[in-house]
Amino acid sequence: MSYEELTAHSSRLIARAWKPNMNRTLYIGDVHGCADELEAIVDKFGFVRGSDTLYQTGDIINKGPDMMRALKFVVDNGIQTVRGNHEEHLIRSMEAPPSQWSEKQKKRFARLPLEDWIYIRDIVKDWPLWRDTPHALLVHAGLEPGKTRLEDMSPEVLLSIRKWNDEPWYKQVTWPKTVVFGHWAKKGFVHRPGFIGLDSGCVYGKCLTAWCPEEDKFYEIPARREYTPVKDKTKESEVSPCKVAGDANKSIVTFDNIREKIMRGEITPANETPEEANIRKASPSISAEWAGYRL
Are residues 189 and 250 in the same domain? Predict the structure, then answer.
């Protein structure tokens, strides 16, 4: 056994020494390909296979250095995750032939062989939008204010919400159990009654955060480095051209242009439902993120 392996083994023993027979749970924040930090936080927790349960907030892929290793670690260790907006974008993008991919999509897909993307897609397409776990409701971004049933909430809201009518969504929601979410790296770690936000911006050089409810403890692993510049953390698509349903001129615009036009009511997707209209007015960023798929 090497020194590194011995040290890791000792850490696991120490982590379990206080109550060796307790089954524990760990909820892990957004990973974005930060495989080293994912492995480190699970090791720091002292994960015992067959006894402990691991959950994760989605967005395993994109931006970071090694999404394939991160995904394989998720699979190999039985980590129960939910689908993030990055996984959803991959699924939707791959429904179109490569000849129809945007320049942004082509650039992203060039990072890995196509067969690797197919492998990733075939795994993440089966991830649910939420998991109702014994200790908490797990969702990627958040819940839709004004609704009490998950089944009635828009998938795009569950995947992308941050603010609703200019206020954080979690200030407008009451839920019967703790809600664990990720997605909002700019906001960072959130810990308030009934809500725990675990996206603490690891891929941006900050840290990876996780929560164990049995210990009432948060685990943290500092990022090894900044993998993606902070200036890009909102969305790469904010400076990437795209087309939008409902734009009569079918003009090539940026994410910011789309959001501004939606806010001003200049873009209304064809055949918009009352539900979609409500989302567009309460959170234009959600409508802007997914508008390109409605052409």
Answer: no
Q: How many Å apart are CA 87 and CA 63, to the nearest integer?
A: 12
CB 79, CB 45: distance < 8 Å: no
For the whole model, what pTM was predicted?
0.84
Residues 90 and 8 reside in one and the same domain: yes
d(C-alpha 280, C-alpha 82), whole Å: 24
110: buried, middle or exposed (CB in 10 Å: 19+, 13-18, 0-12)? exposed
Q: Are residues 48 and 143 in the same domain?
A: yes
- The residue among 178, 212, 230 that closes a domain is 230
Is residue 156 domain-shared with residue 271, that is, in the same domain? no
Condensed to tens digits (0 to 9), the pLDDT of residues 88-124 reads 999 999 988 888 887 878 888 888 999 999 999 999 9
Alpha-carbon Rg for the chain in angstroms:
20
Verify that 161 and 275 share a domain, yes or no. no
